Amino acid sequence: xxxxxxxxxxxxxxxxxxxxxxxxxxxxxxxxxxxxxxxxxxxxxxxxxxxxxxxxxxxxxxxxxxxxxxxxxxxxxxxxxxxxxxxxxxxxxxxxxxxxxxxxxxxxxxxxxxxxxxxxxxxxxxxxxxxxxxxxxxxxxxxxxxxxxxxxxxxxxxxxxxxxxxxxxxxxxxxxxxxxxxxxxxxxxxxxxxxxxxxxxxxxxxxxxxxxxxxxxxxxxxxxxxxxxxxxxxxxxxxxxxxxxxxxxxxxxxxxxxxxxxxxxxxxxxxxxxxxxx
Length: 278
Hints:
Layout: H1 6-32, H2 51-56, H3 65-93, H4 101-109, H5 116-129, H6 139-161, H7 166-173, H8 178-189, H9 191-207, H10 210-213, H11 222-232, H12 237-275
Helix pairs in contact: 1-12, 3-6, 3-9, 3-11, 5-6, 6-9, 7-8, 9-12
């Protein structure tokens, strides 16, 4: 049996350290959230209980945890839907070259390289100069789109770059209109990619801090609320909140993955039935 080279063990050890660095803080927060009623913010743990999770559902002396969660959830849905719609329309538009398409493309993705805090500052200043109210559902919504749209656009550009146009030609040969072709041919084929764009849009919005910092107005989103709690909360309740929000994020990802899996199974079954002449 051929022995493994020494470099294999070095790379394996490096990968394990990387995983520890990546997930270690989350696991630490998860463990500390189960502190007993007299527990603190550090090890060693003083008992094990669900006390701090129950405390989350009671009236908090500081902060607005559930209000900020609702705002982040609604904002995430708004950003997700808008990102998907604009990304699909832009992907369809950029399938053909047109005057200024290159400039528009680079303008769309420039916000990825601009520091997020500057985006937040700029959007907040624009709203103030225009006499508009700085609010999480308006200025916060706009600033977050500068973060999610470039990712959605890049995904859609890659998808349509590989898209086989013969499917559309076959649909038109059968008498389908342009809208029918998009609705019944294009969208079902790219559905898994649309789910990916939706996942990007929601999770990036739900977790965003810097671009919301100066654009949320007087009502915090969840990341801003958690940041504020780090300065005035001295109990493991903040760890319990971190654990629940992490589980919620994992649940959202699982829902999207299950949706992709269901679509893949449906497509495979449809292809099998079509091959049998059903």
